[in-house]
Amino acid sequence: MEKHKLLTLVKKTGKSFKNQNPTGVYRMILENNHYEALSHVLNAKDLVIYSLLIPRFNMDSDIDEDYDRIEYNMFTIELIEVYNTEPEIECDECYGSRFENCDQCDGTGDQECRSCDNTGEEDCDYCDGSGVDEEGEECNVCQGAGKTTCGRCNGDGNESCGYCGGDGDVQCGYCDGDGKIESKDSAEITYTDFVSWSGRWKMYFSGLKHDDQLDKEDSDNFYNNNQTLILRDYQEISEDYQGYENGDTFLFRMEENPSIVTRAIGKGVVIINN
């Protein structure tokens, strides 16, 4: 969008965002249906500049000069913050299933029948296993065999495992059936994409190397600066930041000329890695 058109739009709509910081303006345009028309009019870079301009407009600043300074000084960075040094990860014993094979039955769910010792037969109760009745004749119950089908296992020779109840698996003892354990070798981290137009901050960040740790006070001040816009956050578990403390913040990258494009799916804009 041409500069004069964007400034005209700021003057027409700016008062709707009274007391909002750049991130607040940006979120309202994307998430509030009341501002849906604006989200269609503004392309990705226009939306960012518009969101940075509005607070200046509401402070009666010279938005014509502000536009030039924003466009000239605008830069992007991504900060990584460690927020959980011992995150829950998938249990490496049960692989998140919460169960493990029963040691008693080796995962089969069966064990040898305790009544027939796995034979499937037991002594005939009528003839006491002799095969003959009290008159010395062939036992009618077992037909002289002295054995009958085991009543406990119905002749199978096996019965349900008493330890796992025939399931073949039991609750994982390593994770207590939770499926997750606390990791000592990784950390949970948040990536946050920022756009800023502060020349001071631009010089500060450009003097740092990627993965340099930032002073917490500096990162907090930048985060809360009224010239800073937060585009997006996303989380993951990383082994690169094990051993650090919660709240440690690192510079991930710096873009002198930010490539800001519309998100492919759904609302929002993102910084594209070149």
Helical coverage, percent range: 25-40%
Which of globular, elongated, flat, extended, rod-shaped describes the shape?
rod-shaped
**What structural class is derived from the secondary structure elements?**
alpha+beta
Total helices: the number is 7
Could you spell the SSE succession in H and E letters?
HHHHHEEEEEEEEEEHEHEEEE
Low-confidence stretches: none
Strand content: 25-35%
Radius of gyration over all CA atoms, rounded: 36 Å
Number of strands: 15
Distance between the termini: 23 Å
| Major beta sheet summary | 5 strands, antiparallel
Strand arrangement, major sheet: 11-13-1-10-12
Give the overall average pLDDT.
89
What do these coordinates show?
The model has no long low-confidence stretch (mean pLDDT 89). The chain has helices at residues 3-13, 22-31, 36-41, 44-58, 63-73, 199-206, 216-223; strands at 75-84, 88-90, 99-101, 110-112, 121-123, 147-149, 158-160, 169-171, 180-182, 187-196, 213-214, 228-238, 249-255, 260-262, 269-271. It is an alpha+beta fold. It contains seven helices and 15 strands. The protein is rod-shaped. The strands form six sheets. Strands 11-13-1-10-12 form a five-stranded antiparallel sheet. A two-stranded antiparallel sheet has the order 2-9. Strands 3-8 form a two-stranded antiparallel sheet.
